[in-house]
Design goal:
The complex is a heterodimer of chains A (about 110) and B (about 230). Chain A has a five-stranded mixed β-sheet with strand order 3-9-8-5-6, with no helix packed on it. Chain A is mainly beta and about 110 residues long. Chain A has a single domain (about 20-110), classed as Immunoglobulin-like, CATH 2.60.40.420. Chain A has one helix and nine strands; from the N terminus they run αβββββββββ. With about 230 residues, chain B is mainly beta. Chain B has one domain: Porin (Beta Barrel). A twelve-stranded antiparallel barrel of chain B has the order 1-2-3-4-5-6-7-8-9-10-11-12. In chain B, a hairpin with a 2-residue loop joins strand 9 (about 175-185) and strand 10. The longest helix of chain B has 13 residues, at about 1-15. The chains are: A mainly beta (about 110), B mainly beta (about 230). The interface of A and B includes residues 70 and 96 of A.
Chain lengths: ~110, ~230
């Protein structure tokens, strides 16, 4: 029982929202294309990514590299939290339109991000 | 996040004094839900000890109720004491994604499950409630399930059990994700390798597979479990 109680205490501590400032970045989807198709974010930081679907059909943001999967209904915005990530290129695509809805998150060290 | 903390505090209070037993090898649940998704699933568990061989299969259908909640129902078939294989139970489970993936230090979900079973000529019931936890560490993910199970009925004793399941997975590539899994109850500690994969077919269609081989390590003697799962999402 001690294990269970320790586990439950861990839940409490791990769900406190650390009030660290998360950098926010934006993407939008229009005509089944993500804009900008390449987005630069800082390395080793958790960031907030807001994606707006301007199309009239749903899309699913999907990325094995980022380990994220999220449905975006028409005319709506979703928030995805990614990172902290090491520098590199992380591909993503729209699962309903994988031939056109493609993009890359480029993770660079702080000094390169504007 | 106050909701998660309140629910957790509630679980903390009600689970003081719970006893645990039993074999728990099945599947490690992840705390995520994808909106608008349906799935069909098949699971197999074959376990062998020095005195008996057990076989269980389940066939499930699930769909997402909301953007953060999914409902899945299963027919459970097992081989009984007389070596007859047939449907024994019906089970329904609700998974609830409590936190947005990556928002907090770890991601959390809740699982509620109800089962009705006919075993050895008697009607039995089982209610399961518990938490699912996942922490992403670079290219790996640690997932832990903690379930409290209440059983009662005509051919099982009225008892409360505790199950802990864990999986540490390396996200090597979508189709090949090696993992180590741990399953524990009061009288059982099983550990072993597993392989998990996912293949996308376009649109929303994808096939997930899992294969694991779990060995009991707390006692002498043979006790191996082979588990397989196939899940088609659409």
């Amino acid at each position: 029982m001690k294990t269970l109680n320790i586990f439950l205490l861990v839940v409490i501590f791990t769900t406190f929202d650390v009030k660290s400032a998360k950098d926010t970045f934006y993407l939008y989807l229009e005509s089944h294309l993500f804009y900008p198709s390449e987005l630069v974010i800082p390395a080793n930081k958790k960031v907030k990514l807001i994606i707006e679907n301007k199309d009239s059909t749903p899309e699913e943001f999907d990325s094995f590299d980022l380990n994220r999967e999220k449905v975006i209904y028409p005319g709506r915005k979703v928030t995805i939290y990614i990172g902290p990530l090491k520098p590199g290129r992380y591909e993503y695509f729209g699962e309903f339109n994988p031939n056109t809805a493609l993009g890359t998150i480029i993770v660079e060290s702080d000094r390169h991000v504007h | 996040m106050r909701l998660v903390q309140i629910i957790t505090l509630f679980l903390l209070i009600i689970t003081f004094g719970v006893n645990a037993d039993g074999l728990v090898v099945d599947k490690v649940y992840h705390p995520y839900v994808t909106a608008g998704e349906q799935s069909v699933e098949w699971r197999l568990l074959s376990s062998e000890t020095s005195t008996k061989n057990r076989l269980g299969q389940r066939f499930g259908y699930g769909f997402s109720l909301t953007e953060d909640m999914t409902l899945e129902s299963y027919l459970v078939a097992e081989r009984d004491e007389n070596n007859n294989f047939g449907v024994q139970a019906f089970e329904t489970e609700l998974r609830w994604m409590l936190t947005e993936q990556g928002q907090y230090w770890a991601d959390w979900g809740l699982l509620l499950e109800a089962e009705i079973a006919d075993v050895d000529g008697g009607r039995n019931y089982e209610i399961t409630a518990g938490a699912m936890f996942e922490k992403e560490i670079d290219k790996t993910s640690l997932t832990v399930n903690l379930f409290v199970v209440q059983e009662w009925g005509e051919t099982v004793p009225n008892e409360t059990e505790l199950e802990v399941r864990a999986q540490y997975r390396y996200r090597y590539r979508s189709e090949i994700q090696p993992a180590i899994e741990l399953y524990t109850g009061e009288n059982f500690i099983g550990v072993g390798p597993a392989i998990i994969g996912l293949k996308r077919f376009g649109g929303k269609k994808q096939l997930k597979w899992e294969l694991g081989f779990i060995t009991e390590v707390a006692h002498d003697g043979k006790d191996h479990s082979l588990r397989m799962a196939l899940e088609y999402e659409f």
